[in-house]
Amino acid sequence: MPPPPCSLLLLLLLIAAVTVTATTMLIPGGILRTLGGTPSEKRFVQDTRTDVYRESTAFRWRLVTEPARICRKRWDRRTGGQARFCRREPKVVKEISRGVHLALRECQSQLRHERWNCTTVKSSMRRLLMRDTRESGLVDAFVAAGVVYALAEACAQGRLVDCRCRRPRLHPSPRRSCETFVDFGYHKSRTFLGRPRAGGDFRARILAHNYEAGRNAVRQNLERVCRCHGMSGTCSLRTCWLRLPPFSKVGRRLRGQLENAVRVSAGNTGKGFALQGPTPTRQDIVFSETSPDFCEADRRTGSLGTRGRLCERESSAPGGCQRLCCGRGQETRHMLISTACNCTFQYCCRVTCQTCWDTVEQSTCS
């Protein structure tokens, strides 16, 4: 058989060179590189772990700003597990949405006198959640706590029927107590929001740690209730169980964690945190970036500023003008308001009231 012509060999070598040049190479460590054909072509480097964090960040701020629409098909930022969760457990997703609303209301109630008052303005919240500050960590903890609380409450009130405990060996009794309901909410929250992992992206570990801090805030604030049984109130036999506390109690605990948050940085090993202070526990909120002072509006950080906020003129406590207005001073107005007073009931059936006028002093930050 005669050897192939030189032109055919050159053609085969050219095809092989083009194939190798355009090949996409998967490099260990999760980095995907696509090499161009010439040195002048731009090289594209994509860290898959960073992409996962970006997707979780987009999912996170959408969950916070529009929780009722988190399972809409047009939102393509859900991970595979969250998409399956939305399809298989729509009733649980509905309670998760209710839990996020509950969490944000309580967050605003706890911080109503602070410069940053847990505002839910979309543009502000989106910018806030793009950074790992104390405030974004607190929002994440509140959201996780609200999800656990709402799911446990839904089980206790019968809105969710299948609330079996995930670990039957720890709760062998078929009787489902409130503790079992909280375990159910804890498990579903970890499935939907994510759980702490040793490896992975540093910012994703911060997010997962703060979610865990919120979940633990509910579990550690369960109230123990006991009832006595016996003749003439002797309490010879006592039955005790755990029940959910008011969510405001959970909110106060998380509010206290804001000032005690622990600053961390990325470690050299890619696992855990490099500490810049005390070792954070599972109940602590962690952060890696310095918070703005929230005195002035700043689109980059999501700060809305404090201009126009109501304050107490003579107070230096939280909510007082001295602290809230950042030294800019305040404007005080005297307003005349009307109220219904001296109401009487006339048979039958009418209530008549007089109109009373009061002068109210109102101060706002300049």
TrEMBL record:
**First and last residue of the signal peptide:** 1-22
Task: Name the domain of life.
Answer: Eukaryota
Biological process, per Gene Ontology: canonical Wnt signaling pathway; cell fate commitment; neuron differentiation
| SMART domains linked | WNT1
> What GO molecular function annotation could you give as one example from this UniProt entry?
frizzled binding
Q: Does the keyword Disulfide bond apply?
A: yes
GO cellular component terms?
A: extracellular space
* Membership in a protein family: Belongs to the Wnt family.
Q: What is this protein called?
A: Protein Wnt
Q: Which organism is it from?
A: Ornithodoros erraticus
